[in-house]
Amino acid sequence: MNRSQKKQQTREKILTAAITLFREKGFEEATVQEITKEAKVAKGTFFNYFPTKESIMETLAENRLHQIDEYMAAYGLYRLNFLSKLRAYFSFFLGDYHLNPALTRQVWQHMTEKNSMLSDIWIELLKEGEKQGEIKSDTDITIWADVINSHFYYCLAMSTDDTRELFLDRLMLLLYTSLKAILTKRGRQTMKKLVILGGGYGGLRLLQRLLPNDLPEDVEIVLVDKLPYHCMKTEYYALAAGTESDHEVRVPFPTHKRLKLHFGTIEQVDLKNQVVRMKGEDPLSYDYLVVGLGSEDNYHGVPGAAEHTYSIQSMESTRRTYEVLNNLPANSIVSIIGAGLSGVEIASELRESRSDLHIKLFDRGETILPMFPKRLSNYVQNWFETHEVEVISNSNITEVTEEGLYNHEEFIKSDAIIWTAGIQPNKVVREMDTEKDKKGRVILTPHHHLPDNENVFVVGDCASLPHAPSAQLAEGQADQIAMVLKKRWNGEVLPDKLPTIKLKGVLGSLGKKHGFGVMGDTALTGRVARLLKSGVLWMYKHHSGV
């Protein structure tokens, strides 16, 4: 190791030690002496790298600032509109929010007070917006960069939000109220607008089927999502268990001159006025709408479940789950409520990731995975027994508390509880003024649109279909929606009935070396099933572009 490498290694050791102590004790309470002790360096060595404890805060923020260009380029985010791009920047800067909200806010407060780098970034964004015709040409860019900075500082100082998403919504609402004075009001465009809500499996497949060559010249697509990339939700269990990084479950959205990415939070689908209402933004009008907003946890009215369990239903909630599981001391008890595919996969992955934990998997039924052939179900049960994962059958979780859960009337102490016991459509969909089934999913025609509106389609977990929700089903449905749209645009007659969506099968993992599944009529177990799943995932990740 040369001298330069050794210096960099020492610097990183000090930074890592400081971050650990800041998160444990808080910035004010952690001392330089404690940091040097944790980093195993002399006190004088600390001051060779950082003149003050406060300078560490600035370094943490600067590290993020230096990575922003690479992040924006990797996911094609420079094509976002001005407000979406602004939110993307804030979202990246606050990437560690889930680890310690208070510390993250403090880091960026310090940055906005002591450094001009943020103002320089806002100036460049405003200039680009002006160049694109989104910002009025007579705008004093420098003043408005200061406005953005001051609003950011205000929210950092005043916020008590637990999640980055809530913080961003509050910040963007404040910014929009001020910035709309300099935003241009464009006239109604002659292009027809296909708005896709949600960049999940259905939304991404629809883009793949319409781009690059099957979109009429008079139609543009607007994809709306909270995140500026597609997430492989079926792999969130590995992210939560700590065996995959979030980078491994991301896929960039495709690039096309008539595809616009809109990064923000949806508040309401207003079917009557044909607009999507966004938090902190003007409503987004549409000519054609595809709703693919996915699902969220369904707690079935169990007291305390929403407050005291962790989730793998969103990228942000999964990151929080990972952080909790990663920080558990040895011999902690982890209870997983729900022994469906998600519960089985996270239990097995966590067993391989943390062999020191006591893992309990609560199954409402008598047999684990009863929807699969008996041989396969027995294989999974035996795997759990061999790997000391306790499966508790015939369970009925009646209450969840901070200290544990009640199974029937028995209290079971738990250090962390993960909920995988059911889903429901996204809240925005549940509030849509249209007919739904008993599970809150939207009832559709055989062509996947609303019975009283042929221009509004619903895809994925929010659609009432004869099969259980899955990524495969959403993709099959998206294929058919794309076909319906293309025939309509070409003036062709639609068939009265579309073909039945054929599902190829289901594959699940038991850690990194074993798996299970059904392909056609064939039940698969062991390494072959796991290799098949790995191959499918590799193909999906590397062939999802357009």
TrEMBL record:
<keyword id="KW-0560">Oxidoreductase</keyword>
<keyword id="KW-0274">FAD</keyword>
<dbReference type="GO" id="GO:0003677">
    <property type="term" value="F:DNA binding"/>
</dbReference>
<dbReference type="InterPro" id="IPR023772">
    <property type="entry name" value="DNA-bd_HTH_TetR-type_CS"/>
</dbReference>
<dbReference type="Pfam" id="PF00440">
    <property type="entry name" value="TetR_N"/>
</dbReference>
<dbReference type="GO" id="GO:0019646">
    <property type="term" value="P:aerobic electron transport chain"/>
</dbReference>
<dbReference type="InterPro" id="IPR051169">
    <property type="entry name" value="NADH-Q_oxidoreductase"/>
</dbReference>
<dbReference type="InterPro" id="IPR023753">
    <property type="entry name" value="FAD/NAD-binding_dom"/>
</dbReference>
<feature type="domain" description="HTH tetR-type">
    <location>
        <begin position="8"/>
        <end position="68"/>
    </location>
</feature>
<dbReference type="InterPro" id="IPR009057">
    <property type="entry name" value="Homeodomain-like_sf"/>
</dbReference>
<dbReference type="InterPro" id="IPR036271">
    <property type="entry name" value="Tet_transcr_reg_TetR-rel_C_sf"/>
</dbReference>
<dbReference type="Pfam" id="PF07992">
    <property type="entry name" value="Pyr_redox_2"/>
</dbReference>
<comment type="similarity">
    <text>Belongs to the NADH dehydrogenase family.</text>
</comment>
<protein>
    <submittedName>
        <fullName>Transcriptional regulator, TetR family</fullName>
    </submittedName>
</protein>
<dbReference type="InterPro" id="IPR036188">
    <property type="entry name" value="FAD/NAD-bd_sf"/>
</dbReference>
<dbReference type="GO" id="GO:0003955">
    <property type="term" value="F:NAD(P)H dehydrogenase (quinone) activity"/>
</dbReference>
<dbReference type="InterPro" id="IPR001647">
    <property type="entry name" value="HTH_TetR"/>
</dbReference>
<feature type="DNA-binding region" description="H-T-H motif">
    <location>
        <begin position="31"/>
        <end position="50"/>
    </location>
</feature>
<keyword id="KW-0285">Flavoprotein</keyword>
<keyword id="KW-0238">DNA-binding</keyword>
